[in-house]
Amino acid sequence: MMAADAGTTLIQNNDDGAKMPDKKKTKFDVVIIGAGPSGYTAGIYCSRAGYDTLILSGILPGGQLVNTTEVENFPGFENGIMGPDLMLDMRKQCQRMGTTIIDDEAVDVDFRRKPLKVLTASEEYEGRAIIIATGANPRKLGLEGEQTFGGKGVSYCATCDGPFFRNQEIIVVGGGDSAIEEATFLTKFGSTVHVVHRRSELRASKVMQERAFNNTKLKFHWDSEVADIKGEQKLQQVVIKNLKTNEEKTINAGGLFVAIGHEPNTKLFKNQIELDDEGYVVLKNKTHTSVEGVFAAGDVHDRSYRQAITAAAFGCMSAIDVDKYLTESG
Ligand code: NAP
Questions:
Q1: Which residue among 84, 135, 146, 245 sits deepest, i.e. has the most Cβ atoms within 10 Å of its Cβ?
Q2: Cα of 21 to ligand 1 centre, how many Å?
Q3: What is the position in ligand 1's atom list of the atom closest to the CA of 142?
Q4: Where are the alpha helices (DSSP H) in the chain?
Q5: What confidence tier does 211 reach under pLDDT thresholds 50, 70, 90?
């Protein structure tokens, strides 16, 4: 998918040849911020209910599933579907329903007064209702050099960067579903894939664990953390430390994939709506936030389920709540 140039508002053609969105239009019934499964599903439901709906998709539409390989547990796909394909289909479905999709990033919001406003670098949009569906971002290790080696060996997306590390040793940090899914995927490329986990058991689902333990290209380093990353120009060595014995070992790895969870994407909404101490949006009643007319859907408020299907379901719920709100408020 194409990313917008900084400061440029890209308006996409409707892929099925339906009418082009009006570039000058800035007032909508519903403005949805974010284009993961929750944002797209909300778009489908709002547009289908007859609301003039805008999705501000950000500069990398599709959310976390764009960084996923095969999705086996989204109902309706007997043989699974690739994450990016699922998101592209959702996007097209939205457009067919008449949703305007703009591949631009919200940089500010004003929820203190009506009309509710969402600002990009170049435009100011108004909505009678807003749905926040901005999802969550990958958590960083916080190592010195992590940023320097970003794009030069350190990655947060196996699907995007795995093929760069053919026949090299690869490290994956984390013990959840993401880490195990990514490590398993990376065995297609790496000579050996080392899973470095801070505890002695995985958090990932039993099915994924079983598959991973049967994969001879995966090597597990329990009770361990990445202590240092080294290299000239690009990543060449990763130092792993056993937290119980303090023993360190160096692996000549070209790739380090960090898969240690996510942080909700809510900086934009600080001081505008109520957030909890970890930054997740607090829902007051169903999908209503602390501000009337502002709703939230998906990983931005959900720390329990965090699945594509539950994010989509929250998108549906928020659209139904918006419908009731707009109907009742005239
Ligand atoms: P997660 O379940 O929160 O797992 C994060 C992992 O990273 C945990 O093992 C955690 O260790 C470790 N970790 C956290 N902070 C760390 C740090 N600073 N240093 C080292 N390790 C750290 O996150 P996730 O794997 O991204 O999954 C998120 C949600 O998406 C989950 O609900 C998951 O089931 C779902 N998901 C599903 C699929 C699928 O079904 N195909 C794929 C991906 C994700 P501890 O275990 O010690 O806490």
A1: 135
A2: 39
A3: 18
A4: 37-48, 83-97, 158-161, 177-186, 206-213, 308-328
A5: very high
Task: Report the sign of the C-alpha dihedral through residues 67, 70, 75, 76, in that order.
Answer: positive
Two tokens at 15? 């892929």
Is-catalytic flag, 161?
A: yes
High-pLDDT (> 90) share of the chain, %? 78
Could you read off the pLDDT of 27-69 as tens digits, one per residue?
Answer: 999 999 999 999 999 999 999 999 999 999 987 777 778 766 6
Q: Quick one: 327 exposed, middle or buried, by C-beta within 10 A (0-12, 13-18, 19+)?
A: exposed
Rg value, the chain, Cα: 21
Q: Which of 161, 299, 302, 321 is catalytic?
A: 161
How far apart, in whole angstroms, are the C-alpha atoms of residue 287 and residue 189? Answer: 42
**Running DSSP on this structure, what letter comes out for residue 111?**
-
Q: Whose CA is nearest to atom 4 of ligand 1?
A: 176
Amino acid at 172: V
CA dihedral (145, 147, 151, 155) positive or negative = positive
Does residue 203's CB lie within 6 angstroms of at least one atom of ligand 1?
yes
127-142: per-residue pLDDT in tens? Answer: 999 999 999 888 999 9
Domains parsed from the chain with CATH numbers: 27-137+262-329 (3.50.50.60), 140-258 (3.50.50.60)
